[in-house]
Amino acid sequence: MRIHFITSITPAAALILLSWTGIPAAGQSTAQAGPGGRQAAGTSGPSKPAPRTPDGHPDLNGYWKGTRDTVPVGNIAKDLPGLKLPLTPAGEAAWKHNVTATIDPESICILGGIPRHNASGLAFRILQAPTRVAFLYAYSYYRLIPVDGSKHTEDPDPSFFGEEIGKWDGDALVIDSVGFKETQVWADENGSPHSDALHVVERWTRPDADHIHVETLIEDPKFYTTSFKYSRTWVLGRPGEDLHEFACSENNIDRDHLGFGPGPIRPDGTRGYLDPAPLPPLPAAQK
Fold first, then answer.
1. Is the Cβ–Cβ distance between 32 and 41 less than 8 Å?
2. Is the pTM of this model over 0.85?
């Protein structure tokens, strides 16, 4: 699939930006960009305190990139003993279905949703205002969270990010999400499952000027025997780094050749072959 990037912002993001007023600028870090802008090295030197907005809350605005110490990236079992998810029998069956009979939804331009995006290696931007907080993602997705005292509706329409309600708990932005879709969804990049009973609670904090942290509580009584947590930290991007337009379906000539599942998963929870076979030698004419 050919990916088309230009230095502009998506229409959805532009509409959000047009509705924003008074967003203070955040300081930038000295992090070094990793391959493809997906992973970053840690910052050098002592970090400054986290900035605050005029209403006194931590300022979460910024372009945030993953760090190389998030291992294995893309795996919601990262913090569990033995990287083993507490699957119910139904969850085990759903996992087997995902890895043997479904194509990665993001590879066919379906939204990744939550908790997958919290485990992803891709960067994102936060736009924070007094009554709304927006997350803009590298695949041109966005989520818009009310922080105005709203409550969950009685029967929310299922969606990939769920019905999201935000509130401040001290210096933590807490996002409570219910009402998820149950088809064409992976909970992470390894094909882990979730059902429509999924309940996600995120606690976002900014411990200093250069880092943002999330603790994600995942509950799904259909597919998991107990709730569990996934935590990680991102680093603030360098000046000039930001999201760019991404056209997922443009010239998507490889769609019909995609295989089922995430591919091989190593014992350490990362994706890839343990001992990949060497490439065959080039034909004599190409040497």
1. yes
2. no
CB of 264 closer than 8 Å to CB of 271: yes
Contact criterion met (CB below 8 Å) for 78 and 230: yes
The DSSP element (H or E) to which 96 belongs, if any, is: helix 89-101
Amino acid at 121: G
Q: How far is CA 243 from CA 65, 96, 193, 247, 277, in A?
A: 11, 34, 28, 13, 36
Give me the residue spans of the domains in the chain. 11-258
Alpha-carbon 81 to chain mean position: 22
φ, ψ for residue 73, nearest 5 deg: -70, 150
Strands 39-40 and 132-137: unpaired
C-alpha separations of 142 from 15, 139, 161, 170 in Å: 11, 9, 9, 25
Q: Is 149 helix (H, G, I), strand (E, B) or coil?
A: coil
**Is CATH 3.30.530.20 the right assignment for the domain spanning 11-258?**
no
Q: Per-residue pLDDT tens for 134-143?
A: 999 988 889 9
Which residues are 205's β-sheet partners? 213
267, two tokens: 């014992």
- Which residues on neighbouring strands pair with residue 126, listed in sequence order? 62, 135
Condensed to tens digits (0 to 9), the pLDDT of residues 20-70 reads 434 444 444 333 333 334 445 554 567 799 999 999 999 999 999 999 889
- The string of pLDDT tens digits covering residues 227-276 is 999 999 999 999 999 999 888 877 777 767 777 877 777 787 776 777 77
